[in-house]
Every structure is written in C-alpha cells, then in structure tokens.
Design a protein that fits this description.
- The complex is a heterotrimer of chains A (258), B (129) and C (407).
- In chain A, 33% of the residues lie in helices and 14% in strands.
- Chain A has 258 residues and is an alpha+beta fold.
- Chain A folds into two domains: 34 residues; 218 residues, Alpha-Beta Plaits.
- Chain A is globular, with a radius of gyration of 23 Å.
- With 129 residues, chain B is mainly α.
- Chain B has two domains: 32 residues; 95 residues, no CATH class.
- Chain B is built from seven helices and two strands; from the N terminus they run αααββαααα.
- In chain B, strands 1-2 form a two-stranded antiparallel ribbon.
- In chain B, strand 1 and strand 2 form a beta hairpin.
- Chain B is elongated and about 70 Å long.
- Classes of the chains: A alpha+beta (258), B mainly alpha (129), C mainly alpha (407).
- Chains in contact: A-B, A-C.
C-alpha cells in the first residue's frame, strides 16, 4: 500500500497528539499533582551523610544530635533497652565495625563512640519485605515511613541488617510528658515501627536535618551525592571512608570518615 | 388469625422498640446535632463549608497521601492565606477548640477518629481541655 | 436412598441441605468424654482471651519481645504450624498419586489437621501484629515484592482448598456416593500448594541479608524435612488417640506406614542440622557460627536456650531410635512415645531455636535474650486451644459419620 509523506506526517501527528492528550487527561483524572511530578525529578538528588568519627569522638559525652532529633520528633525517652526507641544514637566502634577491629586494638579505640542511624540504603531490605508498602524509598533516596499504613508486623525490623528500626511497644504519648511534645510534629501510636527519616519534613522545605544543625563540632556533613559539585561528593572522592556491612549489598548512604 | 390478639400487639411493640433510636431523640428535642462552634480568625477555610462538612476526612486522607507518600508539601489556599497541608498546624490553628468544634459532631454521631492519637492538639486547645 | 421416581430440584436441594446440616449436627452431640475435652480446652482458652484484650489496650509491651528480638513466641509458633499444615501432603500424595489404599481412612483426618493448623497460623499472625485492625491493608495494598504478602495469599488459599476438598469428600462419603470429579484437580493443586506454603514461609527468613542464621539456602529444605517429621507424627498421635477413645479405627497398619515416612523425614532433618553445624564450624566464619554458639553453647555468658536446644537434638535422636525399635518390637506405646519425642524435638528446634536464634547476636554483635512472659504464653496456649477445639469438632464429625455409615 502506497502512502505519501504528507499522509504519513498527518497520521503520525494525530496519533502523537492524542497520545499526549490522553496521557495528560489520564494523570489529571488520576488526581496526581503534575507539579509534584516535575519537582521530583529523581536522578538529580540523592541525600547522604558523612560522619567524621574523630570529630565526634572528640566530645565523648556530647549527645546534642540525639537530643535535637528526639526532641524534634517526639521520640519518647525509655530507659529499658528492650523497649527503647532511638532514631540516632552512639555505639562503640567495635560494635559498629566489628570486621575492622582486631584483638590488638586498644580498648579506648574499640569503645570510641560512633553515631548510627538509619542508613537510607539504596537497596533497602526493609522496603522489600514490607507487606503493605508502609515503608518505601523516595526518588531522592530517603526511606520513608507511613505510620498510617503500618500494621506493626515488624518484618522490616527483622530485615534491617543494622538494627536501625524501633517499635512502639506501648503508647508513646503515655511516656512523653505534656511539656516535651513538640506540637508541630506528630507523635506515633502504639504498634507501629519508626526510624530516622533524614528529617524529610525539613529537607522538603530546604532546611538541614536537626542532627546536622545541632552538632557543634561539624561532625555530620549532609548533602546531595548526586551532585558532583557538592561538599559531600568532594569529601567522599578524596578520603578513605567506611560504610556499615557494605558486603551485604544494601548500599548504605551514611559514610564514616575514620 | 390464630392467636391474633397476642401477635399483632406483639408486632407493634417490637416495631416501637426497634425504632426507638428514631423517635426518642425527636421527642426530646435532641435530634438536632448542635452546630460546631466556629470562632476562627480568618473567614476563609481551605474548602467551602458544605464540602468540609461531608468530606473533611477525605481531604485529610488526600493531604496525608500527598505530603507523606508523594512528598508534596506545597501549600493550599484559604482565601488569600497559604497553609500547610496539616491537621495540627493548619486546621487546628483556626479551629483550635477540639471540644466545641470537632467533638461536637463526632460525639453526637458516635464517630471515633483516631487522628489525635498521633496528631497533637495545638497549645491553646490542649490547655482548654 | 432414593425411593424411585424423579425428585424435583426443590426436593433435591432440601435433601442436600439436610445432609450438610446433619453433618454439622454431629458436632453438637457426643459422649461425656467429648464434652469434657471441649470443656478443658475452653478453660485453657479463657486466660489468653483476657490477656489479649490487655494486649489490644496496652500494646505488645505485655510480651517479652524487645527492640533486638522483635519476633518471638507468636511468630515461632506460626512458623512451626505452617509445617504441620503442609504435612497433610504426606498422606495426600501416597493416596491420590500412588493409590496407597491403606491411607484412605486417614487422608481426611490429615486434611482437617491442616485446616486446624492454618487457622492457628492465622491467629498467631493476628496476635503478633502491632495494629491488628489494619490487617486488611495486606490485601488493600498488595506488595508482590514482599514474601509476607505471598505467605498470606498462600495460607488463605490453602485453607480454602483444604476445607473444600475435605468437606466435599466427607459429604460424599456420608451420602454414600462417589467423590465428585471436580475435586480431583483441586486435590492435585493442593500438593504443590502445600509445599509452597512452607517454602514461602522459609523464604520469609532465608532472604534477609542481616540475619546470618537464616541466610542459608538449606533453610527451605530444612523446613520441609522438619515439617514432614513433625506433622505426620502429630497425625499419628491423633489417630492413636482416636483409636483408643472412639469406635473408629484408622488402621494400625496405615499408622505404621506413616511412621516409616516420619523416620525418613527425621533422618533427613537430623542430617540437615548436621550440615549446618559443619559449614558453620569448619568454615570458622564468626557470623556463621555465632548464632549456633548462642543456641547450643551460650554466647557472652547468655545461655537461656542452651538446654532446650540440646534436648531437642537428644529427643530427635532418641525418637529416631524409638521409631526404629518399635518396628521390630511392634509396640504401640513405644511408637507413641517416640512420636511425641520427635514432635517435641522439631517444636523446640523450629518453635524456639530458629526464630529467637536469628536475632542473636544483634547487628551490633551484642546478645539480648528473650523469654516469653506469662500473658504472652497464655495467649499462645489460648490459640492452641482454639485450634484443638476446631480439630476436635472436625474429627468428631468425621468419626460420627463413619460410625453411622458402619465403617
């Protein structure tokens, strides 16, 4: 069958236009905010943290980052280590990096404190296992929690290789005293899992995470590793950094400068 | 009808008992839901009153999905003022008396939303309660 | 049973309904022993229900679970019972695929045991959830990347399959007609489905990079082997009880054949455990043997599970010996004791060691121990009681029908 160029272009044009129109109509009716889709242009952003272990260890009794985070997010303070909820905390170097210690390492070095939090992995096992999609990875790399959907099955807690997640064994509101509650950020309910979220609510409005701002030593560097000009990219390129359990393939986005 | 003198009054009595929720309130004058007290600074809400009355819970669900799941923290207009999509930080800043605004309808209709298990009441409301 | 002449469809329907009703009615009549058993189970069930309301109100804080050991008694019992449910296939395959007529009287008992086990599994999952009233989220927001979603689908499907198959077979038996042909494809489907429910459960554990005890390819195989050792053991024990206390005899020859299958499964299970020990200790890799250290020898001075795990091995070997011996000696009491030993052995290994052991040591190489609390244990007992009550009712129905049919 013969078709001339004019016909072909006409038909192709109509087909293309209706495809685009259909797509626009579809997404309009779907209710998605088209503006959001443009803003979330993914490959440009991947949030990561670089923790300078020496700077942090210089102030062994400091807990500024933990206090800022926990106060800012209404995380209840629970003494019982079986039930505690912690988003960011300090652990001994020998416990955080057991594969990098030796029997000849000084106790002082082995028990140097290292900041740990959710690594916001690139390949997060916790996201893979969630049966209801209550946790997922955003385009900008942050592993989010939806506490409305969480059924409290704690599969994500079993899946996390880093022990980053905490569960609300009882109603946190009963533990937080009225004065401690920061009204702007919700408390959680009993029976849901929570963890550090890289202060997504602050990043989304252009602010820095609470821990980064609270650290007086500048031990926490936060930035966009997808941007080759960012401070954190330059630091990672030039220095020897560790990540926790890198061999597991989770690709954590918290780097440690030792 | 066999035993009709017992059955028909029995059926009538049953109907009266069954319809108790319908007629009791009307007799007592408490069938009308007391209007929620709207003592807001601003005249404008993010959506019109009629929509809000029947769909505020849908709106809150959409806000939640938009903010948490889509990461869209863009603000919404109420009149000319922009507000965050937040129950605690926007809705309850104007409608800050939970007892006289939210609870009035919820209690009357025996609705128990669990929003405030997590979402905090702003200072003023917390102290008023 | 038809007195000649055509019945109208209305009459046929009434006939069918009368049959189905009168099948269920068998559950409502019984001797003193039957009601005594149900009464005892009700008593066992009661405290757990009270404690569960406490759990709903206060949260999972009433359990012994912790941030480090976040799964415990409930999930471990679920894991064990999925194995028991899957093991119905051990009677279904010989009977339906290889025409081993001997198993004819036991098959339906195996299927109803599977039904009861799956119901208990679902109850344990529900009991373990932090927000149980959001359970429909699993179906509202299906997540095919999550094994827990597939486990839910598999369990629900298996429950429905077994209920349909067993009920139809029993109903046909009651009416004295042959089993309808449309159940045949369902029966064939239930065989790979049974294997898959337990494999999916193994996959829940075996795909997690952060838990070295579970991150083993052999875990799926171990699950099936231990299921085929423990499930049929329970079935034989139940059949021996039925044989002793009711007028229905499942046939001692069939039970002994089933015991032979248990022997093979048990040998394979013990062999697999030995394989785990070899890889862990010969390789010397710390992450591979730390969990076994904790379970069998103690770690960091913490050793609350050690004697349970050692007894599990002893019971397994002793049970094997007993089973082999009873074949020679033809002693039913020895058979019963050996089966109880095998069942307990697998229960300790899977129901206690596997789940808790996976969390030890923690990702920080520390040891947090787990001991179930009284309320938690009561809730678990309560769920077992509910399952056993369901099993009693279903078995009563089968036995009454078979006795009235003159089997």
């Amino acid at each position: 069958m013969q078709i001339n160029r004019k016909e072909f272009l006409k038909k192709a044009g109509i087909a293309g236009a209706s495809l685009i129109a259909g797509g626009v109509l579809y997404s309009l009716f779907k209710g998605d905010d088209i503006i959001t889709a443009v803003v979330e242009s993914s490959a440009q952003t991947k949030w990561a943290m670089l923790i300078d272990v020496k700077k942090c260890a210089g102030k062994p009794d400091c807990s500024a980052c933990m206090t800022a985070c926990h106060k800012g997010h209404n995380v209840p303070a629970i003494d019982d280590i079986r039930r505690e909820i912690k988003w960011i905390w300090k652990a001994d170097f020998g416990n955080v990096f057991p594969e990098h210690t030796s029997e000849y390492m000084d106790v002082a070095v082995r028990s140097q404190k290292v900041i740990v939090a959710c690594n916001q992995c690139d390949n997060p096992p916790c996201v893979r296992v969630c049966p209801v999609g209550a946790t997922w990875k955003r385009a900008d790399g942050i592993v989010m929690m939806d506490h409305h959907r969480c059924i409290g099955c704690r599969y994500c807690m079993a899946a996390c290789p880093y022990g980053s997640r905490s569960f609300n064994w009882k109603d946190p509101r009963k533990i937080l005293s009225g004065n401690d509650i920061r009204v702007e950020y919700p408390v959680r309910t009993k029976g849901v899992v929570e963890k550090c979220n890289f202060c997504a609510e602050r990043i989304d409005v252009g602010e820095m995470p609470l821990c980064v701002e609270a650290c007086s030593e500048g031990a926490i560097l936060f930035g966009n590793v997808a941007d080759p000009e960012s401070d954190i990219r330059r630091a990672l390129a030039g220095k020897y950094v560790l990540r926790r359990k890198a061999e597991l393939g989770t690709n954590p986005e918290i780097y440690y400068l030792v | 009808m066999y035993d009709g003198t017992k059955i028909i009054p029995g059926i009538l009595l049953f109907m009266i008992v069954l319809s108790f929720p319908v007629w009791y309130d009307r007799l007592n004058g408490s069938a009308v839901i007391p209007a929620p007290e709207v003592k807001t600074e601003s005249k404008y809400c993010v959506m019109p009153k009629g929509y809000m009355r029947s769909n505020h819970m849908v709106l809150l669900d959409e806000w939640r999905d938009s903010v948490i799941r889509d990461g869209d923290r863009s603000k919404v207009f109420a009149g000319i003022i922009k507000y965050d999509k937040s129950l605690s930080n926007s809705c309850m800043k104007c409608h800050n008396n939970k007892k006289n605004f939210c609870d009035r309808c919820h209690e009357r209709l025996s609705v128990n939303p669990t929003c405030w298990d997590c979402h905090n009441l702003p200072e003023e409301a917390a102290h008023a309660n | 049973m038809f007195s000649g002449g055509k019945l109208s469809s209305e009459q046929i329907l009434k006939y069918i309904i009368w049959y189905e009703d009168s099948m269920l009615e068998k559950i409502l009549t019984g001797k003193r022993q039957y009601w005594l058993l149900l009464g005892c189970l009700l008593v066992l069930m009661a405290p757990g229900l009270f404690f569960y309301t406490r759990q709903i109100l206060d949260g999972l804080v009433i359990t012994g679970l912790s941030r480090d050991v976040s799964w415990g008694l409930y999930i471990s019992q679920f894991t064990f019972l999925v194995g028991v449910a899957a093991s119905a296939v051990v009677v279904v395959i010989p009977y339906y695929l290889h025409d081993v007529k001997q198993f004819g009287r036991i098959v339906i008992l195996g299927e109803f045991l599977a039904v009861s086990a799956v119901v208990m599994c679902l109850l344990f999952i529900f009991a373990d959830m932090g927000q149980p009233f959001r359970i429909f989220n699993v179906l509202l927001y299906p997540s095919p990347h999550s094994l827990m979603f597939w486990d839910t689908v598999a369990l629900l499907g298996y429950l429905v399959l077994n209920i349909i198959i067993a009920w139809t077979a029993l109903s046909a038996e009651y009416k004295g007609i042959p089993v309808p042909q449309w159940t045949k494809p369902l029966i064939y489907l239930s065989i790979p489905w049974a294997i898959s429910i337990h494999t999916v459960t193994a996959f829940l554990y075996a795909g997690l990079p952060g838990r070295p005890l579970w991150l083993a390819s052999i875990l799926g195989a171990r699950f099936i082997a231990s299921a085929f050792a423990s499930g049929p053991s329970l079935l034989i024990i139940l059949c021996l009880i039925v044989r002793k206390f009711t007028a229905f005899d499942p046939g001692i020859a069939a039970l002994k054949s089933l015991a032979k299958i248990v022997v093979y499964a048990l040998v394979i299970n013990l062999f697999f455990i030995a394989l785990e020990f070899f890889t862990a200790y010969y390789s010397g890799i710390p992450s591979h043997h730390h969990a076994l250290d904790y379970l069998f020898f103690g770690l960091d001075g913490k050793s609350s599970l050690v004697w349970f795990m050692r007894i599990s091995i002893v019971l397994g070997v002793a049970g094997l010996g007993g089973l082999l011996l009873q074949m020679k000696m033809n002693n039913t009491m020895l058979l019963l004791i050996s089966l109880v030993a095998v069942f307990l052995s697998v229960w300790l290994d899977k129901g206690l060691g596997l789940v808790v052991g996976g969390f030890v040591p923690t990702p920080f190489e520390t040891v947090t121990e787990y001991i179930p609390t009284l309320p938690e244990s009561a809730i678990a007992v309560s769920i077992f009681a509910i399952g056993f009550m369901l099993l009693t009712a279903l078995y009563k129905m089968v036995i009454s029908i078979r006795i009235s049919n003159g089997n």
